[in-house]
Amino acid sequence: MKLYEDEFDAIVQECVSNFQFNENGNLVAFGILELFELLLVDDVEIQKQVSWIISVLVVKSHNRRILYHAFPQTFDSLLSHFKTTTNLFVLRNVSYILRYLAIEDDIADTRGMLLEKNIIDRLLIMLSNMDDIVVLKNLTWFMYYLFKNNRSNIKMKKSKENKLLKVLEGVQLTYHPDLIHISSKAIATVLNPQSDLDLIQLFHRKRVNSEVIDNCTRDQIEAYLPLFLKIDLSGENYISLRTKIINHPSLMRTAIAYQNSKICNFRDTNLIEDHNYDDMDEVFSYFDSLPQVIPAGASFDNLHITDPLFGSPVPISKIYVKRTMKSFTKPIDMYFHYSTKELPKRVIFKRGDDVRNDMMAMSLFRLFNNIWELSTIHPKPFIFTYKVLAYKNDSGLIEFIPNSTTLKELDWKLLNSFDENQKNNFIASVVGGFTASALLGIRDRHTDNMMICIEKGIFTHIDFGGLFNFGPLLDAPRFAIPTALKNTCVKLGWWKEISDLFGEAFRELYFYEKSIQKVATTLFENSPYESYHIINCLKSGFFSSLALEEERATELFRAAMDSYAASSLKELAHHVGLLTMSTNG
User: Fold this and answer.
1) End-to-end alpha-carbon separation of the chain, Å?
2) What does each C-alpha distance from 121 to 75, 127, 147, 152 come to in angstroms?
3) In DSSP terms, which residues pair with 319 in a beta bridge?
4) Which of 353, 578, 345, 556 shows the shortest CA–CA distance to 438?
5) In 3D, which of 301, 220, 229 has the Cα closest to residue 272?
6) How far apart are CA 519 and CA 72, in angstroms?
7) Mean pLDDT per segment of 10 residues, for the chain of length 585 residues?
8) 512 in Cβ contact with 439 (< 8 Å)
9) What is the H or E stretch that residue 318 is in?
């Protein structure tokens, strides 16, 4: 229904007469609801004037907070203009109002209302059917603020998220600089890296920018640092990453270790070049200077060196040697003592042994754990991870796993007394550990390289010298689940649950095979493993080379895990290998 001009003027005058401004020009009270309702009037000239008035008012933050109270009741009318109105002036004003009303981060009621009204579907329609740069820019800003302020409450199916991302990527094809900038920010908020999985998908889509970096935790950057070196390190991206590294000593330490161990090259990035890291070089040199064999009980006192592994802000004041281990490279089992009452931490120092695989494996395990954590599986599979720092290509420090024993030394009867929590931990960690072993082609899996913490029931793998189906010369044809482990679980009635959980754990990872490939090939780019070896190994593990459906691949994996219980050959190969090394030594 059209309004006569005098009727419109009267309503506007009534609204305006209720406007009250303070000395700063901010609204303090008004009858804005009537003004919003005028947008419903079937008169383009009225819509133009009213939308212009609101768009002027909405610029100021204080005014937005008042305007917002009328906003939910007229949201439908605002969006309806994108279906019914062809007047560009009105569309621009309405999109402008939407953009600015979404800025405030405390209008939870409004955002809740937006979500209830299928805002994502409406955004998809509006963004897909609009070709005006100004309107596109305002709507993209609107979506950016909506997701930025409320991402944790916006739940979307993967199909809808992918559709929204494709629309935003289409916005970028306008090649307008402003649209490219804001759509990139919007994409980053849609895939907000609250989890490692979201971050990895951003890497996969080549959408990591300064905002993504700023939102990352220190642990995320430390775990996936080689991947960050693959992004466009210019402008704001460079500043954000460099600021993160310099402001976190543990990140700087890890970056230097990556550089020295040749895992990745920082020389070309200038991210750490002009920073003084002589202190860390001195720490690494100190460990290199330790004798090859140190008697048990030896103590190195009066130290004042930076903790290279745990990142403690308190310097190490003393190193106590518990033992020199019997392995071929003579690892040293030691304790770090600190200059305060902080509890000592136990560490394995390895020299003449490449622990870079272990360091990178922890990053892959972290990703697997995150995928499982986001699933609905119960119990959630997991891989026990620990700190590893390879500071040279043949030297490094590894966190000691406390209260644990190798499977070789384990009294399997102890599992009979497990309570429900210990049982769930055991099942979840066995499934996580062996699923990762199968998919990543982890070799040399004998009972000296598997441990269990009886107190918590947590099973873990150690020593990842052989990955992607490259193992020692004397090794079983493929990794195996120890017969004793499977037989014990069968007797306790746990194996059926373990077998079923193998299938569920595989299925969750199956959907992210390409992302896992991307992470693995980047992490191991400067390793002896060629990219095609890594990809072939993962394709074999996921059965993707057979082009199987998800259910069939899952069933094949579960059946394969059931069959992997032939450790006698592996144990024989391991002990023959040890005998050969000791004879040659």
Assistant:
1) 97
2) 14, 10, 14, 18
3) 300, 336
4) 556
5) 229
6) 44
7) 45 51 48 62 71 67 55 57 68 75 51 52 70 80 70 59 74 71 73 76 84 85 90 86 84 84 73 64 87 90 89 88 85 91 90 89 94 88 94 91 90 93 95 93 83 93 85 58 90 94 93 91 88 92 81 89 59 39 40
8) no
9) strand 316-324
Give me the pLDDT at residue 165, please.
75
* CB contact at 8 A, 567 and 447: yes
Tokens of 505: 């754990």
Rounded Cα gap, residues 136 and 175, in angstroms: 12
Single-letter amino acid code for the residue at 434: F
Could you write out the DSSP letters of every residue in 285-308? Answer: HHHHTS-SS--TT-EE-S--B--S
Cα–Cα distance measured from residue 476 to residue 161, given in angstroms and rounded to the nearest whole number: 44
| Cα–Cα distance for residue pair 507/526, rounded to 1 Å | 30
Contact 502, 435 (CB under 8 A): yes
Nearest Cα residue to 436 out of 544, 541, 553, 569 = 541
467 and 361 in contact (C-beta within 8 Å)?
A: yes
What is the CA 249 to chain-centroid distance, rounded?
21
84, 123 in Cβ contact below 8 A?
Answer: no
- The predicted pLDDT at position 425 comes to 95
Q: Which residues contact 24 (CB under 8 A, 6 or more apart)?
A: none
Sign (positive or negative) of CA dihedral 412, 417, 422, 425: positive
**259: Cα within 13 Å, side-chain hemisphere:** 18
Q: What's the confidence (pLDDT) of residue 453?
A: 93
Give per-residue burial for 465-486: e unless 16+ CB within 10 Å, then b: bbbbbbbeebbbebbbbbeebb
Query: Residue with structure tokens 């460990």?
Result: 287
Can you tell me the distance from the alpha carbon of 347 to that of 310, in angstroms, rounded to the nearest whole number? 10
Query: Using CA atoms, how far apart are residues 208 and 231, in angstroms rounded to an integer?
Result: 7
Kindly compute the dihedral angle of the four CA atoms of residues 510, 511, 514, 516, in this order, to the nearest 10 degrees.
-60
For the chain, what's the residue count? 585
Decide: helix, strand or coil at residue 349. strand
Look up residue 332 and give its DSSP letter. Answer: E
- Considering only CA atoms, which of 79, 182, 177, 90 is closest in space to residue 123? 79
Q: Give the per-residue pLDDT at 32.
A: 56
CA distances from 426 to 94, 376, 420, 451 (A): 58, 18, 10, 11
Cα–Cα distance measured from residue 209 to residue 189, given in angstroms and rounded to the nearest whole number: 11
CA angle 577, 398, 385 (to 5 degrees): 95
Instruction: Give the integer Cα–Cα distance in Å for 367 and 395.
Output: 25
Residues 6+ apart with CB under 8 A from 461: 383, 433, 436, 437, 442, 445, 449, 450, 451
